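Lab meeting minutes (informal)
Scribe: AK
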Amino acid sequence: METLKISSDTLFILLGAIMVLAMHSGFAFLEVGTVRKKNQVNALVKILCDFAVSTIAYFFIGYAVAYGVDFFAGAEKLAAKSGYELTKFFFLLTFAAAVPAIVSGGIAERAKFNPQLMATALIVGFVYPFFEGIAWNDKYGVQAWLEAAAGAKFHDFAGSVVVHAVGGWIALMAVMLLGARRGRYGKDGAISAHPPSSIPFLALGAWVLSVGWFGFNVMSAQTIDKISGLVAVNSLMAMAGGIIAALVSGRNDPGFVHNGPLAGLVAICAGSDIMHPIGALVTGGVAGALFVYMFTLTQNRLKIDDVLGVWPLHGLCGAWGGIAAGIFGLKSLGGIGGVTFISQLLGTLLGIGVALVGGAIVYGALKAVVGIRLDQEEEFNGSDLSIHKITATPEREAGW
């Protein structure tokens, strides 16, 4: 029975890893559909290569930083207990690799390719697992201090803060250091619109992410005996709330509508295992409206050229999700309890702080040493031709 239990747990978390791996194609197509046509190839190549670099960095460095586990033993030892620890690494890797995938959407259309791969290695190897270890492995005594001072540990079941807020706030630093796309904002205050190149591709990316998210959230239980239908229904309700809120506040804009479910799902990750479904619906609805409002504010008033809006979508909605777990997770509001508002607020702020400092160090150093931005001519021609020497529509170059 013990062997069956271990094998079942291994299969369970492997299926979760595969579902979250599939989400990376969603990241790719969401970016492909949002950027201009001359940058579509780069979006596809970048997400795939970022995942490969993330795998190597997390295998050799990041997983050990977060959990103190390495894989330098013999294969026979690694295969023990059905290779559960290896499969757990695979699952958590897909979370870690989501961070550079998030950043990718913010810096699209003007970032150099190789420096971004360097940034991915540093983020997944050091910055992300540092906070991951604090939140999910009780490292450095932070969780013990929060429990003593605020009445509960910081609770983030599936990564609203650990993955999404950290990724979104790192992306903000990268976007600020990179600067806006040339021609996006005029000296006279005029704003040049860069509409999405393909709403169907954007929608495909959103659908793939939304479906895979049920592996992201539900399989965060990591063992089959801890699986919870509450997590699945809360994810569903938050997704629906995000869609409706984005539909209404975004005035039927298809870009907002298809980012609405993602905003809701980002926000519900932290408290999906402790909220009532109605609380999850409210959490998702607030996130959907928050994304629409803050995307518009950052693009038009603050003039922060975050191409896919990853800071409002992941950074702000992720932070809201961490805090919301400390509101709707309370027993007084229908939740299961075991959380406090103060611990959630402090844990969320710590995650933001780590992301801002880590993002500033990584991208600041790369900007100073090797540069992180394409030159003016390369950006004008597009990253597809400038970096990969081909476009998504090569028939144009052939004169067809």
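Next up, CB showed the second protein from the same session:
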Amino acid sequence: MKQTPPLRAYLPELDGLRALSVISVLLVHATYGRVQGGFLGVDIFFVISGYLITRVIMREQGMTARIDLREFYLRRGFRILPPLIACLILAFALWNGPPPDRWPVAAATVFFFANFLPSEMLGSLGHTWSLAIEEQFYLVWPLIFILSMKQGLRTAAVIAGIVIASAIATRFGLLAAGYPPVLLYTFTPARTDGLMIGCLLAIIETMLAVRTPQRLVRLLAWISFVAIVTALFLAKRDTMQEVPLAFTLFALIAATLIFAVPRLAVRDPLRRAFAHPASRYVGRRSYGLYLYHYPIFRAAETYRHPGSLSNYLIVVTVEIALSLIATELSWRFIEQPMLRVKKRISWRNTRTVAVPAI
């Protein structure tokens, strides 16, 4: 297998991008859709995930001349499953709708096929559809990437391009066949383009390895940032679902921001904002915050009085506060201990570089 050069281990600015993503999701739920484009926070997560997981694989190969799939999947398990099980328990404890058929819902959540169940059946675990798509992707992509790497990064890039094109073609085909657009939103073959655009970005960065002029980097960073923020406030999910290229274009904009922000001058205000300790704090806890906020928000709806602004403000404040508390408790007592276990089984434990969890 052709070796790739070692990659920079940790990009703190991406924690800031994670923070932007999870805050967007919280806003769309806390405002009952008034911040209507907040759902796109999930798509930013997809691009970041594809980008970082591919960098991790390439970095391991570059530093050890091998990739241990068993180790890779063990690391994913220690990172993903403990908080997810805690979220499952919390959701069942707080369930405020009709009693769920718990075994199918629990199995769909833990074994990552929640995106194939109706959202009304998932109830307080409805948000786990995105996690299911990511983990289905992680199950397949590392193996494909390793096999393609035997022919070089160019082959991996071509495969990534084919997957992106196939996702777009799937949306075109199913819409032309008359399938409801809403069904495509959680259908894995129609949603892999965001993840794969992130993977392709990591591959292209390594292939080219050229220094980008600072003026161009700054232009790309600020244009993509403004475009993303505008979309987060104005984009409509129904409209985007009906336009097969819409999610792909948004993912490309997100990839541009991911590429540009870490390359900005250190004193650039955008880079400083994304690398700020507060942004990094939220970003490192974004997985837990995404998991725990949804069952808490749904349970708190019992106390909502439509039409009352004061009641709305109180309920939303309590929802956010409880979500942050649950997230911090999970980070300290579940995620960090599991990350220490994960580190002990990682190839990195023989290195001096410390890499935050992905």
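CB comment: The chain has 16 helices and no strands.
No objections, moving on.
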